[in-house]
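User: Can you predict the 3D structure for this chain?
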Amino acid sequence: MSAYFASLSLLKLVKNLPGGVAQGLIWGIMALGIYITFRLLDVADLTVDGSFSTGGAVTVMLILAGWPAWAALLMAVLAGLLAGLVTGMLHTRLGIPAILAGILTQLALYSVNLRIMGMSANKAVSVDKYRLVLSLRNIPSAILVGAILAALIVALMYWYFGTEQGSAIRATGNNPAMSRALGINIDNMKVLGLSLSNGLVALSGGLMAQYQGFADVNMGRGAIVIGLAAVIIGEVIGRVLFRKYINFSVTLAFTVIGGVLYYLVIVVVLWLRLNSNDLKLFTAVVVALFLAVPTLRERRRHGVRRGRTKEVPGDA
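Assistant: Here is the predicted structure, written as structure tokens:
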């Protein structure tokens, strides 16, 4: 065992950490999209595994066609909005359960993404030939760009969900029956929320495709789990640090931080030379543990309260 730890290079770990931060920021942006459906709408949307790849495919193909990278990202967002719109329409207009509607859209997007990429499973885009927004060739710049974009998105989301329309979306997820009684069209709010969510996810996919230098039809596989991990980790860390004083803007910021922390853990796992095929299992375990933390803390708190109520005054 001592020989195993002696063979590990701390220098290699330190060198890999910035790359983990850069990727974590990109996944953090995706987690912001998942936060809209998972926390605000209280909907389990599995469209994201497909819309993430759609964002990457649209971005790469448009860059190869001569579009500026920033314009390609805007079109990727539009493609994500349309993917979320389809899921929303299947759910609200056709009465298909949200989780099944997301699965159907995700399944359809696999073929759509193949057609976008000319029936090729992957397409490469080189930073040597094209001016990209960010690239793993320049990790400090990628971290800066990712942090700026994440901060802008957090600010926009904080502003938007404080408007009348944004508050209606939040109310729809919090109490649909009361929202309907107040005159809110909850079907429209669900469609809008799903569209915005997948637009952010597609933006993240476009950024990831540029960062890694290629788009792949399977690059979004498991994205929902990673996004949930970022949301849950961010929420737990935020509540531990701020307790009950955490507000909406801080929660959004910690969602991005959760993505960074998740990827830093992945870097450490790979540094420990654990089998990379177990990463999905590891991710599932991490998400389950963090999901269980609030429940375990609440049970412990109730247990302490029960113990205090059973104490008899004057007993030694």
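The chain has one domain: 2-306. Residues 279-310 form the longest helix (32 residues).
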